[in-house]
Every structure is written in structure tokens, then in C-alpha cells.
Specification:
Elements lengths: L7 H12 L3 H30 L2 E3 L18 E6 L3 E6 L2 E8 L4 H12 L1 H16 L3 E5 L16 H4 L3 E9 L8 H12 L1 H12 L1
Antiparallel strand pairs: 1-2, 2-3, 3-4, 4-6, 5-6
Helix pairs in contact: 1-2, 3-7, 4-7
Length: about 210
């Protein structure tokens, strides 16, 4: 079936889960999750896959092995599409992300070399500026408190150099629009706008 949005029951499901994050609630409402939450996400990501790459929907279960919070279920559904795109639904609404959340040591070295370079570094600064003009948040994951080894603290792009990951994010508050095709339109527009960032990372970091 074609994606047609998330019905109000999807948000009601997560409202209830936030209040009663137990196996009992999950078991009693699993059919709602499957039909009203998971199915629309599957339809959306499958439609996005043609342009963005293979989709992967994350499991709803939390990894509680090393967490003080032992609640068993995530209060959102998230999915990746291709190597750079992410979609998430929760009671807060719909969110979309793009970029690289984490970089391995080799990728991080390439990223910092590119940021430090005059041409590639200036390109990234311009890309970030354009995204921020479009009300898209660009931020780094795992930022160092000081300059990375080998780079001066007064480097003109020191903020970017301190990042261990670089992503763009946009969140749309929940509303009636979620129940129709406009939800896909917003996500597609976001991924189109953030394409220069993903292309820069793919060319200079992922390689």
C-alpha cells in the first residue's frame, strides 16, 4: 500500500506507552503498534528507498544492559534510509536527520583533514550556513572540549574540527498533517535540502 500518513492512534499508542512502559501494555497494544505505527513507517521508507537506498527500521526494544533506565520499550520508532538519512516518529511529532552520527577513527581523520583544508573546509562552512538559513539544525556528536591533537585552538573552523560526527536535524510538531501525504512531503524536502551535506561527507569522509 502507498504511504498515507500516521493516524491519531499512532500518537495515542506512544502516549500510553510513556505512561505505562511495561510488557503488559505492549502486549495488549501490539496490534496497534503493528498496524498504526510500524506499517506506515514501512510504507514510507520503502517509497524513499528508490532514491535514498535500503531502509532499516529499528527494533522497538531498548538495550537496557548498561542503562539505569530499565524501561523495556522505545517511545519512538526510528528508521534509516540509505547510508545518511534517518526518520523518527514520536509524540513530539516527526523528525528527520541526515549526515554521519558517528565516524570511525579513519573517517574522523579524513573529516578533520577536509575541514582543516581551505577549499573543502570553506565548502562545508557554506553548506552549514545554507542549512541553518532553511531552519535546519546542524550539530556535532561527541564534541571534544578542546582542539583535537595536531590542530590549533584558534583554527577558524575549530568548532567543526571538534566534532566526532556531523548531522542535520529538523523536527515538526505533531498535528493533523501527520495523517496524510504531507508527512512524506516534509521528509522528502528535508532530504533534498540536506543533500549537499551528505554529498560532502560521502566524498570526503566515507570515501
Amino acid at each position: 500500500m502507498a504511504f498515507s500518513g500516521w493516524p491519531e492512534e499512532a500518537l495515542d499508542f506512544y502516549d500510553g506507552l510513556a505512561a505505562d512502559n511495561t510488557k503488559t501494555y505492549w502486549t495488549e497494544h501490539k496490534a496497534v503498534y503493528t498496524e498504526k505505527v510500524l506499517r506506515p513507517m514501512t510504507e514510507l521508507t520503502e517509497e524513499l528507498a528508490a532514491d535514498l537506498g535500503e531502509p532499516k527500521i529499528f527494533r522497538p526494544y531498548r538495550d537496557i544492559r548498561f542503562s539505569k533506565d530499565k524501561t523495556p520499550y522505545k517511545t519512538h520508532i526510528g528508521a534509516t534510509v540509505g547510508d545518511s538519512c534517518y526518520v523518527q516518529l514520536s509524540v513530539e511529532g516527526l523528525g528527520a536527520g541526515a549526515g554521519m552520527w558517528e565516524m570511525n577513527p579513519e573517517q574522523l581523520a579524513r573529516y578533520r583533514d577536509a575541514v582543516a583544508g581551505d577549499r573543502l573546509g570553506a565548502e562545508l562552512v557554506q553548506i552549514v550556513a545554507e542549512l541553518e538559513k532553511a531552519d535546519i539544525t546542524v550539530h556535532g556528536h561527541g564534541a571534544l572540549k578542546s582542539a583535537p591533537r595536531g590542530y590549533p585552538a584558534d583554527h577558524p573552523r575549530i568548532t567543526l574540527l571538534r566534532y566526532k560526527g556531523l548531522t542535520a536535524w529538523q523536527q515538526w510538531p505533531a498535528g493533523p498533517w501527520l495523517e496524510g501525504a504531507r508527512a512524506k512531503d516534509r521528509v522528502v524536502s528535508f532530504f533534498r535540502t540536506t543533500r549537499p551535506l551528505c554529498s560532502w561527507l560521502r566524498s570526503n569522509v566515507r570515501v
